[in-house]
Fold this sequence. Notes:
Chains A, B: Keywords: Calcium, Hydrolase, Metal-binding, Signal. Two copies of one chain form a homodimer. Chain A is of the alpha/beta class. The first copy, chain A, has a single domain (29-415), classed as Alkaline Phosphatase, subunit A, CATH 3.40.720.10. In chain A, 28% of the residues lie in helices and 15% in strands. The first copy, chain A, has helices at 2-24, 64-72, 85-94, 98-101, 147-153, 229-247, 271-276, 281-306, 350-353, 380-387, 405-409, 429-438, 491-507, and strands spanning 32-38, 74-80, 122-123, 132-133, 142-143, 157-162, 183-185, 251-256, 313-319, 354-360, 369-371, 375-376, 419-424, 452-457, 460-465, 470-475, 514-515. In chain A, the strands form four sheets. In chain A, strands 1, 2, 6, 7, 8, 9, 10, 11 and 12 form a nine-stranded mixed sheet that branches. Chain A has a four-stranded antiparallel sheet with strand order 13-14-15-16, covered by helices on one side. In chain A, a hairpin with a 2-residue loop joins strand 14 and strand 15 (460-465). Chain A is globular. The termini of chain A are far apart. The interface between A and B is large, with 45 and 44 residues.
Amino acid sequence: MKKAVLNFLLMAIGFxxxxxxxxxxxxxxxxxxxxxxxxxxxxxxxxxxxGDAPAPNNKIYETPNMxxxxxxGVKFSNAYAHSICTPSRVSLVTGMGVARHRVTNWxxxxxxxxxDAPYAGMKWPEWNYNGMSARQEYKNxxxxxxxxxxxxxxxxxxxxxxxxxxxxxxxxxxxxxxxGFIESVASDAxxxxxxxxxxxxxxxKEKYGYTYQRGVRxxxxxxxxxxxxxxxxTLEAMKVMDKALDLKVPFxxxxxxxxxxTPIMSDDxxxxxxxxxxxxxxxxxxxxxxxxxxxxxxxxxxxxKEKGIGENTVILFMSDNGGLALNPPRKxxxxxxxxxxxxxKGSLYEGGIKEPMIAYWPGVTKAGTKATQNILxxxxxxxxxxxxxxxxxxxxxxVDGVSFVKYMKDSNxxxxxxxxxxxxxxxxxxxxxTLKKHYEGMKVEEIxxxxxxxxxxxxxxxxxxxxxxxxxxxxxxxxxxxxEDQAKSNPKKVKELFGLLNQRLKEQGAQYPIDEATDKExxxxxxx
Amino acid sequence: MKKAVLNFLLMAIGFxxxxxxxxxxxxxxxxxxxxxxxxxxxxxxxxxxxGDAPAPNNKIYETPNMxxxxxxGVKFSNAYAHSICTPSRVSLVTGMGVARHRVTNWxxxxxxxxxDAPYAGMKWPEWNYNGMSARQEYKNxxxxxxxxxxxxxxxxxxxxxxxxxxxxxxxxxxxxxxxGFIESVASDAxxxxxxxxxxxxxxxKEKYGYTYQRGVRxxxxxxxxxxxxxxxxTLEAMKVMDKALDLKVPFxxxxxxxxxxTPIMSDDxxxxxxxxxxxxxxxxxxxxxxxxxxxxxxxxxxxxKEKGIGENTVILFMSDNGGLALNPPRKxxxxxxxxxxxxxKGSLYEGGIKEPMIAYWPGVTKAGTKATQNILxxxxxxxxxxxxxxxxxxxxxxVDGVSFVKYMKDSNxxxxxxxxxxxxxxxxxxxxxTLKKHYEGMKVEEIxxxxxxxxxxxxxxxxxxxxxxxxxxxxxxxxxxxxEDQAKSNPKKVKELFGLLNQRLKEQGAQYPIDEATDKExxxxxxx
Lengths: 528, 528
């Protein structure tokens, strides 16, 4: 029996050693998470078709790494964001619906500069035009507990590389290190780079210097070199991951490309072939922004493989709003850039909110699958927390997002009881100017812009326009181009969705456009 | 027997759980390290006497937290730095002697701007006036493996808060994140703040903006508030440590105060009492810089205690060169600010190089002890690596520093075979202008400035001046004020030290001042 005890002792010790090593690397059990977020990328700005049939753009753009990632994981064909950048980004890191966080339009890099354009007969509510905030500190900000803060506090190495645009300069969240990112590379209040070229110091006047507003900061060591911003951010992202690997802790990399946002500049590694394809030079430049971004994705995929962490690294691909359909700065047909989707960035039509989304979670997602569940950008918040095994979080805010982990596990699942809502109690002037130039006399509502709210439940989508007081109803499954308004023929569905939309807006504490004449909120009114 | 086995099983499991937790926190066995580095603080700028008898200043300044720290650990009474900031700081993070790294004078924040003042009949060598560098990238930089880089790669969370000043803007090391610091707060190429007040945006013209050169960067969220820079850096340091605690990894905090460097501004929390003591307003302001710095030390000591990491956190207190003795900007008697020490910052006399140093390593240092061993600032490099249990490091550079861990363990140990060397093949114009104003006709050598080298071994110190070709010899133990030059009376000691100094300078590859007439290096010549 002594021998048995000895054996047991040895076994126990052996177990302990294994367990000990395992425990030391306990964090490794939690996956690394790369959120690869593209700016202003449309649903069809890729060679990977997200629709049932390839879109015209799918034959133009070349994104082999997105194809590769989709082959490894799940492609989400009904993923949505909000129609403009800051609202989407704030929803993503707070989990809040846009009507709840009230950052309903894009934020200027200066404080106290609402970006709303005028709309006849209306005034705008006091929305959170200074963006989000880590604490009560200044007016017109939303105070929330952020995703990176929660991850960091639970032991994740958190970093943002690239575009922040969470708040105006001076508000805490304009420096992402104040909302939980340990590292913040080239990220602040600006929404787009002044210049993509390192040789032009990314728009900073002086080499090694910094120009207030819009010059990308923090990349001084690259100034004067022959590198494109997309490439530089990729190199920086690898440095970030190197550090997490040295610390032996899991990481959350918020890889936030400035591409493919304006200014439309040529990533010269890819320009000539798009000219050879017959594209207009401006559109060819746009295509290089897309392919440069895809190259970055491929580089990061290679990095995790080479470092031996590919099997424990989640990659989530997403864009923050629809593709830009304005001319200028684009050269294509205005509001037709995202065909078969209607309109583009700034619109509540599909072109403004439908996103190319891919999720790869080794050992969880199944290779080459496709999920059709409706997903909204605030869903990333609970999803990422679930992946990181973080439960029972106390947040300052009420979270509206719903985890999509189950759809990653089983892409065939569908929950048609889930509704997504959009809310834009404002006017995006940029859309109007393109309208005026190309379609004089046409109302912004015809491109899905102007003050509006929308809801999607299952295949059905309803949009309400505050200016025209009109509702439109579409079946997105059979009519992805939103050409056939079924509001008149299907009043039952209209009533159901209109009621639900209003209920959910109220729940989230929505602000509404204000009647200039009466000073009263213009609540949605159903006129069938 | 079944019960015995069961008991054993339970015990084994219990053991494993404990072991597992322990293993998970394996890094905790390595101490956290706070390097509390003050800028331009003199050896007597404290209420803690470092000499055998209290210095006049010891009765003026109030630094209760330094006293407290010294009561907890070891006070080093013969700790030295180089006479100017950048040389010291580069030695600290590279472990190299100043003659070896060749950053022999302070670096301008612009590239290619040597800071040397003229000296009749001499030219200056091509020293590394652009500072240190993480890689071969630009001329006149020293490429070295840095202390934070090694610590980071071994799993330490590394951060610098405050003054960097390792290199000119555009050189990689001007951003400390390029030399191994994960976080870099308010740290770049500048050597002093334009302004200490948050209400003045730390010298940045625009609120939330950034002024190229000298405005402290990265603290935009404090702009306009009623806070002093020293306090703000302390708050930021706590945020840094919070993060390391969340990640459960050990940290290296390079707490690098801009205080007590010029501009001499009032930290109003402490001003009135120094006026009440009868100090001139400028000197009273200087005293507030000192006490504000001490308050920061106390705050950090409280922080580690409150977080329960006091027993595993090393605190090292050090300054980077001697106290400023120029008038203006100071108001005291020129070159008498550091009595009993002779001269001040920029001098190879004790006033320029002797530093207030305290080391506290819980469980290792003995409370309230005093070590008299000669220590030089490059010694921090191997010391900190030893504390972090990092052995056999491959560095690009040869390390000249020697660990002082053994003197922390036993403060009575003395190694008189160790020699420290200083090398300044240049001229610091700032010293000259005070001379001219107050002591017209006096040579810079009389305040220990101008091109010079020095050596200290045991109690003996020899200084060689390249301009006058004169050697001076002092016994620092019996003549701390360097009033009695013993060169003539002790030629044997002069020869010994002069030979050793030259040998060590040669070993380090020293550059020498150049004779303008012959274009040849002015090697030291012994004329007894």
